[in-house]
């Protein structure tokens, strides 16, 4: 197995790792029921997506 010929500096190593991090999920408010939901997904509380009902949700 070959070994590295030169030392990788800390700046070069860390700049390569800048994208390896956790991201906080982004939430938007549903226009129908105003509950937080993930964007571009159907709302789990009312079952609508883009103004249409796509999931039948049982009300409790």
Automatic annotation (TrEMBL):
Report if keyword Cell cycle is assigned.
no
**Highest taxon in the source lineage:** Bacteria
Task: Point out the signal peptide segment.
Answer: none
Q: Which GO terms describe its biological process?
A: translation
Q: Which UniProt keywords apply?
A: Ribonucleoprotein, Ribosomal protein
Which Pfam families does the record match to this protein?
A: Ribosomal_L32p
- GO molecular function per UniProt: structural constituent of ribosome
- Say which family it is in: Belongs to the bacterial ribosomal protein bL32 family.
The family database entries (InterPro entries) matched by this protein are listed as: Ribosomal_bL32 (IPR002677), Ribosomal_bL32_bact (IPR044957), Ribosomal_zn-bd (IPR011332)
- State any GO CC term: large ribosomal subunit
Name of the protein this chain belongs to: Large ribosomal subunit protein bL32
What phylogenetic lineage does the species belong to?
Bacteria, Pseudomonadati, Nitrospirota, Nitrospiria, Candidatus Troglogloeales
């Amino acid at each position: 197995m070959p070994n590295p010929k030169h030392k990788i500096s800390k700046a070069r190593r860390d700049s390569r790792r800048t994208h390896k991090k956790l991201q906080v999920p982004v939430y938007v408010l549903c226009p129908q029921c105003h509950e937080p939901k993930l964007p571009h997904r159907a709302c789990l509380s009312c079952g609508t997506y883009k103004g249409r009902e796509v999931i039948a949700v049982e009300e409790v």
